[in-house]
Amino acid sequence: MATADLGTLVSTDWLADHLGDPAVKILDCTWHHASTNLDGRTQYRGRHLPGSVHFDIDNIADKSSPLPHMLPSPAEFAKKVGLLGISNADRVIVYDRLFGGSAAARVWWMFRVFGHDNVALLDGGYAKWQAEKKPAEMAPVRPEPAAFEAAFRPELVRSLADMKANLLTGAEQVLDARGPAKFDGSQEDVFPVKKPGHIPSSLNVPWGDFITETGAFAGPEAIRARFAAAGVDIDRPVVATCASGTISCVLALALHLIGRPAAVYDGSFAEWGLADDTPIAA
């Protein structure tokens, strides 16, 4: 059985000890759907970890797509993270205000998609940091631009065409990170769709099941047990999906913690549920 990846998560104590390290770059990735009336950038301006800069998944995205926060091109990603002061030599730490489920896990995945493995998520996020009365600041951070080179990894990303093909082959298990009511279509999804429900043959594995009461990630054995309870064979290929490619990255991260690879369907149900030729199960 694979062992846990000890570099994917960092503790609040570790990060507090490394706040002054010039090779450690901290990204506040807080993002909220418009329906919440919350704004990640506003929250960042109100209070953030010392030295952190805001990473907006709606800004570092493919602006030509009508779908929410789709992956940008490698060149666009490299340009924008370089403007955030990040180079290929840096240790990138990501956090948000929803224990990684809001957007930090997606940013973790994005860096890996573009070839940067030296990225970790702050375990417990801003809430744990704040509860421990660790330092925060209001002053905006204006980083010096840096040079970043991106190398795209297609094996970590799935497209609509890939997902349609998988319906025929069943080569990859499809795991849906949304809650049960959105999965079965009884609750309206956060993005408009023509037909509620889920991709046929997918398994419902809600992302919150991997987060403990403290907001930190569950341990490796608990992660394996949760996947097993949902009927997932972790030795088979996996692709994760959700509403818009954010919380699906929590599943990818959880699998990474137990040494298993996973791809993410970037368009997720925001794309699948709008297409005219996609089947739906409920």
Q: Can you describe this structure?
A:
With 282 residues, this protein is an alpha/beta fold. The chain has 2 domains: 9-152, Oxidized Rhodanese, domain 1 (3-Layer(aba) Sandwich); 155-272, Oxidized Rhodanese, domain 1 (3-Layer(aba) Sandwich), CATH 3.40.250. Helix content is 28%, strand content 12%. It is built from 10 helices and 10 strands. A 5-stranded parallel sheet has the order 1-5-4-2-3. Strands 6-10-9-7-8 form a 5-stranded parallel sheet. Helix 9 links the parallel strand 9 and strand 10. Helix 4 crosses helix 9 (248-257).
Structure keywords:
alpha/beta, Oxidized Rhodanese, domain 1, five-stranded parallel sheet, 10 helices, 12% strand, globular
Share of helix, binned: 25-40%
Give the amount of beta strand, in percent. Answer: 5-15%
State the major sheet: 5 strands, parallel
Structural category is alpha/beta
What is the strand arrangement across the widest sheet? 1-5-4-2-3
Helices, by number, come to: 10
Number of strands: 10
Low-pLDDT windows of residues: 1-6
CATH homologous superfamily (4th level) name of the largest domain? Rhodanese-like domain
Which class of the largest domain in CATH terms?
Alpha Beta
**What is the CA-atom radius of gyration, in angstroms?**
18 Å
